[in-house]
Structure formats: C-alpha cells, structure tokens
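Problem: given the chain below (322 residues), write out its structure.
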Amino acid sequence: MDQALTLRRLADDARQHQLQPLWPDQADRSGPYADRSGPCPAPAHPSVKVLSFTSGKGGVGKTHIVVNLAYALQSLGARVMLLDADLGLANVDVLLGLAPRFTIQDVLEGHKALDDVLVTGPAGMLILPASSGVPELADLNDVQRLQLLTILETLEQDIDFLLIDTGAGISANVMYFNMAAQDIVVVVTPEPTSITDAYALMKVLCTKYDEKHFKVIMNNVAHANEAKEAFRRLHLVAERFLNVSIDYLGFILHDTSFSQAVRQQKALLDIYPSSVAAPGFRALAQQLLATPEAAYPKGGIQFFWQRLLARQKPYAPEHAGR
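Solution.
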C-alpha cells in the first residue's frame, strides 16, 4: 500500500463527506499539528520495534504481560513506550495507579500534542494513556485510525520499543492495531477456550488481513512443559488449517503475587522482583532485545512507517558529492 496516497485519499474523503479532518484543525497553522512545509529530515533514531499484544479472549493476563515486559525492557536499558490501545476501556493507568490529566482522546481531538499527553510510568517507561467509558473511541473510523498513525510519526521521544496493549477479540480497532504493528504477539493460557479463541483470532488476521506471522506467549502456566504442550496444540491446528508461521517466545508461570500487585496498583517486577513469574519476564525481554528488527515494512499501514523506510534508504542530500 502507498501509505502517503492513502492518507491523501482519506483526507479528501473527509472533506467531501464532512468527516473529521485528518489533522484536527487544519485552519490553525500554529497548533500542535501545524503544517510545516518543506522536506522532512531523516529521523535521528529510525529503529523502533513495534509489537502488538493481543488475545482471542479477555482474562488471559495480557495487560500484565505488556506492563511487566515494558518494565523488564526498561531495566535492561531499552527505551519503551506503552500504548494503551483498548481505547474505550482503558486499564493500564488503573493497573499502575496513574492519574493522567490527558489521554489519547485529547490528541485525536487536536487539543494536545502527543508529547503533552505522555506520562512516565515505573522504571521510566513512557505511557500513552487511553480513555475509559468513551464509546466513540471504541470504534474509530478509517480517517481517525490513519490520523493516529500520522500523529505517532510526530513523536519526539527516542524509543526502542512501542508495545501496544490491544483490546481482546476481533473488533475493528483490535484488527487495526495488530495490522499496524511489525510483530503480533498473541497471549494464550493453557485453557482450551483460550487456545481455541487464539486460533480464531489468527484465522481472522490471516484470511481477512493477510497476516502470516505470529509470536506466542503462554501465560499462567504451572511449568515449562505445560506451556510447551499448550503451544504445540495451537501450533498443530494452525499449521494444519492456516498458512502461517508461529514463533514461541516463552512463558510466564502462575503467580499469586499478581493479585497482590493489582491491589497495590504496581507492576509485579516493581514490588516483587523475586516472585515466581519475574524470571519469565526478564527472559522474554532479553529475547526481544536479541531479536533482529523486521527488515522491511509489511504491505499495509504501520506505525513508524517512515522510520522503517528511512532505515532502508539512508538519507543523502540531493547534491551530495557534487
């Protein structure tokens, strides 16, 4: 997909049908999204790994995975931004005891720039908080989705990872955030319902959106063998009926300390660094740090698409060497 062409087409559609404009206030050239003419400089730090964390059903501990993995990556020296992509029912801020003044809603409405909304979480991670109880955000239209993609390109903070905590299920928003990520991480538990729903999610992403690569984290397992056996069952059925590849990232052990961390509104690794589940998060973080970044953008839209292209085609002045 020619992303720039798509953005222009949707902006034209917005004007013709009086939809929300691509930029919240195109008449205000002095606002946070002012049109600054001229060539865009090549980004100083083009490499950003973007991973979406998703699940076929709720209650599998997906948000715990994202928050604690972000904490582990930060502790290892990576710069991490966490996007709460359950836009209508946000819970990352609640899980961490944060009270953000502004949310992604303020950015989409053009009231605030992206960097004004970001809050700092435990270990120094950056968090882009979502709104809670706002049904309009639960089903963004095409223009708003591409607006969000374009807004993220304005991020001035240097980050190494963008971790996206999607909602559960197969809603349009969930599909969008998964398609816009470089890697899709499916969080699964050993329960048969979780495995079945994870397969259904991958089937939709494969058949309707042409996604062919997935990563899997097994959560809430009793031991490593249970995790591997559950992954084997999922892998077998996906291999038989879907033309996809599935990589096993690792597992997180069942740990009663999670409930204690929730009550205290803290990340597990923050207050229980020696808990049963903690080594699993550190192992996952080390594996992600060691995994090479995707060599090329996917065929569709992606967050930090321009940075991916910048890495492919290093910036060179037009008349360099003359």
